[in-house]
């Protein structure tokens, strides 16, 4: 009888399909050429963002004004041209990766942590606690997020800190909702019920079944949300509610470019391309990961 | 259905309370008070304090909140600090522009996104399908304001076809609408594609084929209706996103809508305007989500029966 | 084509392209006769290709699965013959539902959740006949009545989720029968149902067959169901037919070791309760690694040297009994 039960638990483990989930998913992911390419580009961008701080000096290379070099089109000397203060757009775009990547990743990570705590605790405790918290979360979702972010930034002050807090506040409810439903979904799977029925402990179930199965979908969500955060951050900066000029944030740079588009269209193109490329990379990796987690979905 | 609708409307009350309190709390923390906004930078501290006392602003937050809500229930959303006019008077003329934009954009995104998504699903794996996926991913990764700038560059500055600023002819609406609807359409197309592919592999499709139904009949009569359920919910949520996105579009194209009014109010710390527009927009969102759920219930008898 | 056959399948091979661009054949060189007014069973484990055979006849294969070789001769109403494997999709659509119908395993999901069952059955009529809605509705209600649906008029307006599994399967049968086709394919029609409902549905099918002079191909893994309503039986294993005989002959003289295994695996209510239920060891070889020798030899208790080297052919051992096995048989 006991022997039989052990065998059954092994089978349950197999059904959950994860002796080593990370290795499995990675093996699937590698066969996705586009997502792999996005991954490589992203790694290159992260290295670039870190290296930019060592290659160029913020005061002299990034924000210093060179009146003589104003509004030059792209050339061998200035690959992306120069802006209305004669600053090299290439250097500024490269340097700007630091802001966008930092804000995107930090905001998503912090929101995820809050989201996991709130969502998982709601799923676990249920009852009145769940009802009240989720009602509050749902109410926050009803406020157009751009509006809420703007109001929060106005109170917290323009700049990096205010922006990150505002964006986190706006994205936590979505996370909490998703994580709650993921956790609930996994908890109600038949193999979990079977494991419970066969006497496996709660801790063991959470460790062996729930966490590995939640990890993938949550990671996909984080990746997709980094892309969303990068775009929101640049939008806020574009409305001059986020990172302030002369810092080379991409959205802020585009904000400055609007009045000069007739003369210097390059100012409106390169920072935007940088935003597009960065968030595209995150989206593509998320896409590839979705498929890698569930190869059947193709 | 009626009972369900009433229940949903009733459930809006706590949501509205949470939303207003949250916004009220946030705005009370901002540096502006009615006195400082109304009297301007040069006013003395005493004058400002006297002004604030006169309108009761120095009372505790909860009392002021209760006061505000009592007024709001009767349709009085307070008075703008800056314009010294009732909030409804300031906001009302701005709503038609924003709502027109958002409604047209949602309709456009459905009209563009659904057929394209269906096409991609039916021709799954073809070049057209891959193209749809690529284009929608790129659009999903593009901030709206940049799309707006690129269009301005091309259609206004290079080709001189469309005006960049203000309201006048239908031409003024082309670029703002495209900016709002294109990314949304791309999202809808992706969603329709996925749900259609799922539905097309369901058993009832096989049954319909076994009856002798052809592909067009299966797609449009049998599958589309079931595939639209998540799409309709998404359209509702997109509408809210579009109302928020209107802030940026109105800013870029210089349209005098709610978005611009809100941005100005936030910058001027004119709390009643921010508060009032938040309440109206959130209510609008909730009503739209309710309507979308009701549409889903009409399309889908199983959902209808579950509503009780 | 023999005059007493409705369908003659010859050399049918249905293939599925694998990732490495090779072709796997879930249906491999099948011959199958469906005599007029007879019920023919097609029996085997899941994955043996029995459903795929049925879907090949209906041409309901999901791309990229397709028929590579073979003919499916079908005698039409007027007596003319067509090859279902060769006609166009458009012609085939005219055959489906009107001359050949099919019912499926899962009555829970086989019906469209957002259309009333009445309309779904009505569609089967209006797709093929130019007839007014009200006339079609009358025929649907008559069909509901014929398959034993209580209160057919009210049920006409019901949605699938409002009905029980047994009722839904009756709706599916009504949908298949409403145009009185000459041939019905039933793909595990009772597998998802309770035992009591199963018996009712089988009785209904038997009765409908007699009333309508119809031929049935019944796909099942359950030899008990075969014993209940079939006239002839084909046993399928790994894409091939391994044994064919009339029902009485098969149950009297079971020849193929696989069929014997299936027989032994039937739980018997009245048998002795000691001893475990018989199971056939091992599993069906995978599609991508189909042996060139006897496909059953790895699981066969009687396997010999010859079985591991050559593929046995389907040979006649008298009484119209065909078997794909090298073993000597006593007559």
What does this structure look like?
By secondary structure, chain A is an all-alpha fold. Helix content of chain A is 77%, strand content 0%. Chain A is elongated, with a radius of gyration of 23 Å. The N terminus of chain A is likely disordered. Chain B has 14 helices and no strands. The longest helix of chain B is centred in the last third of the chain and has 39 residues. The radius of gyration of chain B is 24 Å and the shape is flat. The model of chain B has no long low-confidence stretch (mean pLDDT 86). In chain C, a hairpin with a 5-residue loop joins strand 1 and strand 2. The model of chain C has no long low-confidence stretch (mean pLDDT 89). At the A-B interface, helix 6, helix 7, helix 10, helix 11 and helix 12 of A face helix 1, helix 7, helix 8, helix 11 and helix 12 of B.
User: Per DSSP, what share of the residues of chain C sits in E-state strands of 2 or more residues?
Assistant: 15-25%
Flag low-confidence runs of chain A: 1-18
- The CATH architecture classification of chain A is Orthogonal Bundle
Give me the oligomer status. Answer: heterotrimer
What is CATH's topology name of the largest domain in chain C? Rossmann fold
Task: Output the helix-strand order of chain C.
Answer: EEEHEEHEHHHHEHEHEEHHHEE
Strand residue content of chain A? under 5%
Terminal Cα span of chain A? 41 Å
CATH class bucket of the largest domain in chain C: Alpha Beta
Secondary structure class of chain C reads alpha/beta
Instruction: Give the uncertain stretches of chain C in residue-range form.
Output: none
CATH class of chain A: Mainly Alpha
* Helicity range of chain A: over 70%
Kindly name the structural category of chain A.
mainly alpha
Name of the CATH superfamily of the largest domain in chain C: P-loop containing nucleotide triphosphate hydrolases
Distance between the first and last residues' Cα of chain C = 29 Å
Inertia-based shape of chain C: globular
What is the count of DSSP helices of chain A, taking H or I runs of 4+ residues? 12
* Inertia-based shape of chain A: elongated
Strand order of the largest sheet of chain C: 6-7-8-3-9-10-12-11
């Amino acid at each position: 009888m006991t022997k039989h039960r052990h065998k059954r638990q092994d089978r349950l483990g197999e059904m959950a399909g994860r002796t080593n989930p990370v290795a499995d998913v990675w093996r699937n992911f590698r066969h996705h050429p586009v997502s792999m390419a996005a991954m490589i580009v992203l790694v290159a961008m992260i290295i670039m963002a870190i290296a930019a701080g060592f290659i160029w000096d913020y005061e002299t290379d990034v924000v210093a004004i060179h009146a003589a070099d104003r509004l030059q089109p792209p050339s061998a000397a200035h690959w992306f041209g120069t802006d209305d203060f004669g600053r090299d757009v290439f250097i500024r775009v490269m340097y700007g990766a630091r802001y966008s990547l930092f804000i995107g990743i930090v905001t998503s990570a912090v929101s995820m942590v809050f989201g996991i705590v709130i969502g998982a605790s709601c799923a676990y405790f249920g009852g009145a606690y769940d009802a009240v918290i989720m009602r509050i979360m749902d109410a926050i979702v009803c406020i157009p997020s751009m509006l809420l972010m703007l109001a929060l930034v106005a109170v917290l002050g323009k700049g990096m800190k205010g922006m990150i807090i505002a964006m986190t506040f706006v994205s936590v409810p979505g996370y909490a909702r998703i994580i709650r439903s993921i956790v609930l979904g996994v908890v109600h799977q038949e193999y979990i019920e079977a494991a419970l029925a066969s006497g496996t402990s709660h801790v063991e179930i959470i460790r062996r079944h729930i966490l590995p199965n939640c990890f993938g979908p949550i990671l996909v969500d984080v990746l997709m949300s980094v892309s969303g955060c990068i775009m929101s951050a640049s939008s806020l900066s574009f409305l001059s509610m986020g990172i302030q000029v002369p810092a080379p944030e991409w959205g802020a740079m585009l904000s400055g470019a609007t009045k000069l588009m007739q003369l210097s269209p390059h100012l409106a193109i390169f920072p935007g391309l940088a935003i597009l490329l960065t968030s595209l990379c995150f989206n593509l990796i998320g896409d590839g990961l979705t498929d890698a987690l569930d190869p059947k979905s193709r | 259905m009626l009972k369900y609708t009433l229940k949903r409307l009733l459930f809006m009350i706590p949501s509205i309370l949470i939303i207003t309190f949250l916004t009220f709390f946030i705005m009370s923390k901002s540096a502006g008070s009615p006195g400082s906004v109304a009297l301007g930078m040069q006013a003395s501290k005493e004058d400002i304090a006297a002004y604030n006392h006169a309108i009761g602003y120095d009372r505790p937050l909860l009392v002021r909140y209760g006061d505000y809500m009592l007024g709001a229930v009767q349709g009085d959303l307070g008075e703008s600090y800056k314009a010294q006019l009732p909030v409804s008077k300031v906001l009302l003329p701005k709503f038609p522009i924003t709502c027109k934009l958002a409604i047209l954009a949602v309709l456009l995104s459905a009209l563009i996104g659904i057929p394209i998504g269906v096409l991609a699903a039916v021709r799954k794996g073809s070049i057209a399908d891959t193209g749809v996926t690529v284009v929608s991913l790129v659009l999903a990764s593009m901030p709206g304001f940049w799309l707006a700038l690129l269009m301005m560059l091309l259609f206004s500055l290079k080709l001189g076809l469309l005006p960049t600023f203000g309201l006048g002819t239908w031409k003024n609406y082309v670029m703002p609408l495209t900016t709002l609807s294109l990314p949304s359409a791309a999202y809808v197309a992706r969603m329709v594609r996925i749900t259609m592919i799922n539905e097309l592999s369901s058993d009832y499709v096989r049954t319909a084929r076994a009856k002798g139904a052809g592909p067009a009949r299966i797609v449009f009569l049998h599958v589309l209706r079931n595939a639209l359920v998540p799409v309709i919910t998404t359209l509702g949520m997109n509408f809210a996103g579009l109302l928020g996105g209107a802030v940026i579009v109105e800013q870029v194209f210089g349209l005098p809508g709610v978005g611009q009014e809100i941005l100005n109010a936030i910058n001027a710390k004119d709390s009643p305007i921010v508060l009032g527009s938040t309440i109206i927009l959130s209510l609008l969102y909730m009503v739209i989500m309710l309507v979308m759920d009701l549409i889903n219930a009409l399309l889908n008898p199983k959902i209808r029966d579950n509503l009780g | 084509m023999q005059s007493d056959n409705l369908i003659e399948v010859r050399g049918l091979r249905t293939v599925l392209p694998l990732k490495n661009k090779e072709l796997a054949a879930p249906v491999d060189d099948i011959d199958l006769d469906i005599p007029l007014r007879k019920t023919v069973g097609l029996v085997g484990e899941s994955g043996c290709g029995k459903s795929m055979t049925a879907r090949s006849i209906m041409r309901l294969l999901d791309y990229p699965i397709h028929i590579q070789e073979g003919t499916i001769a079908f005698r039409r109403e007027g007596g003319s013959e067509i090859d279902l494997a060769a006609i166009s999709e458009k012609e085939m659509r005219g055959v489906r539902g009107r001359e050949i119908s099919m019912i499926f395993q899962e009555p829970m999901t086989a019906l469209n959740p957002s259309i009333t069952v009445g309309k779904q059955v009505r569609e089967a009529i209006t797709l093929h006949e130019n007839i007014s809605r009200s006339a079609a509705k009358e025929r649907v209600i008559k069909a509901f009545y014929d398959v034993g649906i209580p209160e057919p008029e009210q049920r006409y307006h019901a949605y699938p989720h409002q009905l029980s599994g047994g009722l839904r399967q009756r709706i599916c049968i009504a949908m298949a029968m409403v145009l009185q086709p000459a041939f019905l394919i039933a793909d595990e029609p009772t597998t998802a149902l309770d035992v009591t409902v199963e018996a009712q549905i089988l009785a209904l099918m038997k009765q409908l067959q007699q009333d309508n002079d119809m031929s049935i191909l019944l796909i099942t893994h359950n030899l008990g169901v075969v014993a209940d309503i079939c006239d002839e039986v084909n046993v399928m294993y790994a894409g091939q037919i391994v044994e064919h005989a009339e029902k009485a002959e098969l149950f009297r003289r079971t020849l193929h070791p696989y069929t014997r295994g299936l027989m032994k695996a039937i739980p018997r209510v009245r048998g002795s309760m000691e001893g475990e239920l018989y199971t056939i060891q091992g599993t069906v070889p995978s599609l991508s690694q189909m042996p060139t020798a006897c496909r059953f030899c790895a699981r066969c208790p009687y396997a010999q040297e010859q079985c591991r080297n050559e593929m046995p052919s389907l040979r006649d051992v008298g009484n119209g009994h065909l078997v794909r096995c090298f073993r000597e048989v006593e007559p």
